[in-house]
Design brief:
Length: about 290
């Protein structure tokens, strides 16, 4: 479990746990924590994870950061980002109550993405430390992860895996010592491969579908799979999966006497409330109302 060590009034030292964490969500290769610590200081050193921090503070927070042999003091405003590569110690001190999102992504996963997606020797790629900066694309990914973290009903792992891959490629393209170019394939998945993927999704709607499994069906990287899939049918793998689960739920609600809880599990939703939430967003009504309509 990640924590922040904070010294209050430079006397007592207390461990502050995150107010929200993906620790027990089953997310692979990524850990997302939301912190709201009082004024204090922290010394962080992650040997096998790169750390990205996004400021969520409503008011600017005066902070001192030391990492990679460099020191920076300044005001961190909402939307400001910092990157601390694996094995780089970070010392931070903040003068006011803070609020931030910490994203830790496994260094071995970054290396795998470099090899599979960019055809690069991971030994030639090293992330650079970054202090207070702005990056709308990186901020958008972080906020999507935060939104998922805040959901009472966890969404599909496929969605988190897609965001994790997107994050890894963006870090490699923008913040590595050697910034590789990502080849962009045009035209989408060939029809034969697309049918193979769609059939697999249809046959496994009641199970946890992983991005790695879908990409392996057609023998390409997860990042390129997402790109080509969206080109082929104008929607992401996660959105398509959700649509198909809703369509199956509609059929079962009208054509069977299964309980809504049974239908939720048969369609791959984690609970009755999870089905209800997604069903209402897609159709404007609850499963019960749809059945009675």
């Amino acid at each position: 479990m990640a924590f922040v060590k904070a010294s209050v009034n430079h006397s007592a030292e207390t461990n502050y746990l995150p107010i929200l964490s993906s620790q027990n969500r089953g997310w692979e290769n990524i850990l997302v924590n939301q912190f709201q610590p009082p004024p204090g200081e922290a010394l962080c050193h992650f040997s096998q994870e790169h750390a990205i921090c996004l400021s969520l503070a409503a008011h600017p927070v005066r902070s001192l950061h030391i990492k990679g042999g460099k020191t920076q003091t300044g005001l961190y405003r909402k939307g400001d980002l910092s990157i601390t590569p694996a094995q780089v110690p970070l010392f931070a001190r903040w003068e006011d109550a803070d609020h931030f999102l910490e994203i830790r992504i496994a260094s071995h996963f970054i290396e795998r993405v470099a090899t599979e997606t960019l055809a690069k020797n991971p030994g030639q790629l090293e992330l650079l430390p970054e202090f207070r900066m702005r990056d709308p694309h990186l901020e958008a990914i972080a906020l999507m992860l935060l939104t998922e973290l805040q959901q009472e009903n966890p969404g599909s792992r496929l969605y988190i895996e897609s965001l994790t891959n997107l994050l890894a490629v963006h870090l490699l393209r923008q913040y590595a010592t050697s910034r590789p170019q990502v080849s962009v394939y045009r035209g989408g998945l060939p029809q034969r491969q697309l049918v193979q993927v769609l059939d697999y999704i249809n046959d496994h709607l009641d199970q946890e579908i992983k991005l790695a499994d879908l990409a392996a069906l057609v023998g390409i990287s997860q990042f390129h799979f997402c790109h080509l899939f969206k080109q082929a049918i104008a929607t992401t793998p996660y959105q398509y999966l959700l649509q198909q689960r809703i369509e199956r739920a509609k059929h079962l609600l009208k054509q069977t006497n299964h309980s809504i809880m049974e239908i939720a599990l048969m369609c791959g939703f984690s609970s009755h409330s999870h089905l209800s939430q997604q069903f209402r967003q897609a159709t404007g009504m609850t499963p019960k109302a749809y059945r009675m309509n």
